[in-house]
């Protein structure tokens, strides 16, 4: 329960570890989170497990030993940003313009230092993680990568419904006669509707080409313009033409 509470309440960040996408959390924030949890505040019907930061650290170290997460170390990757090279600008600039620029540069000699700083390449920083050789919990700004990933209740419900549905389809010959008749009529109606939509999609293309050719490209007539667009079912049939 405590591990699930941490997994749900503790903020995480995403990065890469050994070319894998992982989620990691801050150790100090994890300790703060547990000190504010029901297991530290002593709410009714909840056993008080944590009284000090040391007790939380001891508990987190136990979770680490049971492979709920593992310790990592940050690696800051720096990547220089390329700046546009203006070396060829002076050659392509007309002579009067170059003379004007020279005067402007002479008058602004006091700002040369600031301009030189702007020309320095900016450094882009990106944080990656690597395995730490010392696997124990430290109450500090240390990254710890989650291994524990509980399956949410929604996934269990969807999986159960899929299994029940697959079994029900396999037992179709054992369904009552009336239910099988309704399913048959429903499947025929669905197939008919699908055939109508495909026929309309083909017809609108033919109609567009015929009108476009007869008018020498002056008219672009679309029947049901939203039929193949990413819209709702009712919106696909409106407007009727465009």
From TrEMBL:
<keyword id="KW-0811">Translocation</keyword>
<dbReference type="InterPro" id="IPR004728">
    <property type="entry name" value="Sec62"/>
</dbReference>
<feature type="transmembrane region" description="Helical">
    <location>
        <begin position="182"/>
        <end position="203"/>
    </location>
</feature>
<feature type="transmembrane region" description="Helical">
    <location>
        <begin position="155"/>
        <end position="176"/>
    </location>
</feature>
<keyword id="KW-0653">Protein transport</keyword>
<keyword id="KW-0813">Transport</keyword>
<dbReference type="Pfam" id="PF03839">
    <property type="entry name" value="Sec62"/>
</dbReference>
<feature type="region of interest" description="Disordered">
    <location>
        <begin position="80"/>
        <end position="117"/>
    </location>
</feature>
<keyword id="KW-0472">Membrane</keyword>
<dbReference type="GO" id="GO:0005789">
    <property type="term" value="C:endoplasmic reticulum membrane"/>
</dbReference>
<keyword id="KW-0812">Transmembrane</keyword>
<dbReference type="GO" id="GO:0031204">
    <property type="term" value="P:post-translational protein targeting to membrane, translocation"/>
</dbReference>
<protein>
    <recommendedName>
        <fullName>Translocation protein SEC62</fullName>
    </recommendedName>
</protein>
<keyword id="KW-0256">Endoplasmic reticulum</keyword>
<keyword id="KW-1133">Transmembrane helix</keyword>
<comment type="similarity">
    <text>Belongs to the SEC62 family.</text>
</comment>
């Amino acid at each position: 329960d405590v591990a699930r509470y941490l997994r749900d309440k503790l903020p995480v960040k995403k990065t890469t570890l050994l070319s894998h996408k992982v989620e990691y959390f801050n150790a100090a924030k994890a300790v703060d989170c547990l000190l504010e949890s029901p297991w530290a505040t002593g709410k009714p019907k909840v056993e008080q497990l944590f009284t000090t930061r040391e007790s939380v650290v001891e508990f987190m170290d136990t979770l680490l030993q049971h492979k709920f997460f593992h310790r990592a170390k940050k690696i800051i990757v720096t990547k220089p940003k390329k700046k546009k090279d203006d070396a060829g600008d002076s050659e392509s600039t007309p002579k009067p313009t170059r003379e004007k620029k020279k005067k402007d540069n002479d008058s602004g000699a006091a700002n040369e230092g600031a301009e030189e700083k702007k020309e320095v390449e900016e450094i882009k920083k990106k944080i990656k993680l690597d395995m730490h050789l010392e696997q124990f919990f430290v109450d500090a700004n240390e990254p710890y990568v989650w291994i524990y990933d509980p399956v949410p209740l929604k996934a269990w419900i969807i999986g159960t419904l899929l299994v029940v549905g697959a079994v029900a389809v396999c037992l179709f010959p054992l369904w009552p006669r009336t239910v099988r008749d309704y399913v048959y009529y429903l499947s025929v109606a669905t197939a008919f509707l699908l055939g109508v939509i495909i026929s309309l999609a083909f017809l609108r293309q033919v109609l567009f080409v015929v009108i476009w050719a007869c008018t020498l490209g002056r008219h672009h007539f679309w029947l049901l313009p939203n039929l193949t667009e990413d819209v709702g079912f009712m919106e696909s049939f409106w407007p009727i033409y465009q």
